[in-house]
């Protein structure tokens, strides 16, 4: 009696004609996650099986938990689809569990199996009641639910469901570039984008000496945490100092943040062209700060024709914090190292900017050469979840 990890696809099953592509991408992602383990993967359009070594079970389950596209998974006993063997193994495995109330559920995917689901469930329940003392049936809130899934070749018996991340496998959509500031919101936005199947590369704007190398290392750490949900994340670091100082010296203080964001979007637009990104992703939440009002978003978006995806736009701060804690980025995000969006914040940033005023402010200094110089100085780090090197080692 072998134990296997049985994976259920969930949302992938709605893809009909495209399901094969989504399943193949999921298999590829799982294979990448489990490349260091002794596993064998089987799959069809309904489920996936991972054959594993028992001593590696905990590590493999942890890895599976970080893969998008999985609705649920189980550690299941795989037995031949024979009525007598099913009865024997259900009793044998149930004796290994601790419970006083139970429920049996049967799914007969193989309609040629001689006993119908509605008949087999009470038959197995009666078998347990007869052979295990001190237990009783509770169909509403049992201590344990014994699930039996019958397919033509094998039957799977399992007792516990693990919730997967859901969503789509990373790689089923085109790539996008994430504006990763180091705050709480943008890592959550990156996580949510990956959950919809989008591979991401991160872009960090730094303004040394106004921002610190510790702030950069903080962003590298956030990339490591996001890379835990994929294979590798490229981090493009933008030296923004000259351009930001020019904005500070020439632009009306109330418009500095708006003009800065417009410059960032121009750079993002260029980087998307260079690195084949189909969209810009950021952690903007409507109304959270001055540059995140709808009026601000409109005039900032004006500099690019690319889609700007804001996964956390309609979440409040507490909801974003809860997600940040769930994906283990919160404690890193609150480290007290300022990014370039916070070092030059004016006392009264405009919340209802106009395009005409933005163009007027930008005309005060010759920014195109500064933009070009900034873009030419961008450098890239490759970040993996297991890469424990500091920024000095990565440079």
Task: Give an overview in words.
- This protein is of the alpha/beta class and 395 residues long.
- The protein has two domains: 2-163, VC0802-like, CATH 3.30.2130.30; 176-394, HUPs (Rossmann fold), CATH 3.40.50.620.
- Helix content is 38%, strand content 19%.
- It has 14 helices and 15 strands.
- It has helices at 19-33, 57-64, 83-94, 117-131, 185-195, 213-227, 241-250, 256-275, 294-301, 317-326, 330-333, 355-362, 367-376, 391-394, and strands spanning 2-8, 40-43, 47-51, 72-80, 101-108, 136-137, 144-150, 154-158, 162-163, 176-179, 200-206, 233-239, 280-281, 308-309, 379-383.
- Strands 1, 2, 3, 4, 5, 6, 7, 8 and 9 form a nine-stranded mixed sheet that branches. Strands 14-13-10-11-12-15 form a six-stranded mixed sheet.
- Helix 3 (83-94) packs across helix 4 and helix 8 packs across helix 9.
- It starts with a strand and ends with a helix.
- Residues 388-395 have low confidence and may be disordered.
> How many helical stretches?
14
**Whole-number count of domains:** 2
- Spatial shape: elongated
Uncertain residue segments: 388-395
Radius of gyration over C-alpha positions, nearest whole angstrom: 27 Å
Q: What's the story with the biggest beta sheet? A: 9 strands, mixed
Number of strands: 15
Question: Class of the largest domain in CATH?
Answer: Alpha Beta
Q: N-to-C SSE series?
A: EHEEHEHEHEEEEEHEHEHHEHEHHHHEH
Terminal Cα span: 51 Å
Task: Let me know the average pLDDT.
Answer: 92
- Using the coordinates shown, work out and report the CATH topology of the largest domain: Rossmann fold
From the coordinates shown, what is the CATH architecture of the largest domain?
3-Layer(aba) Sandwich
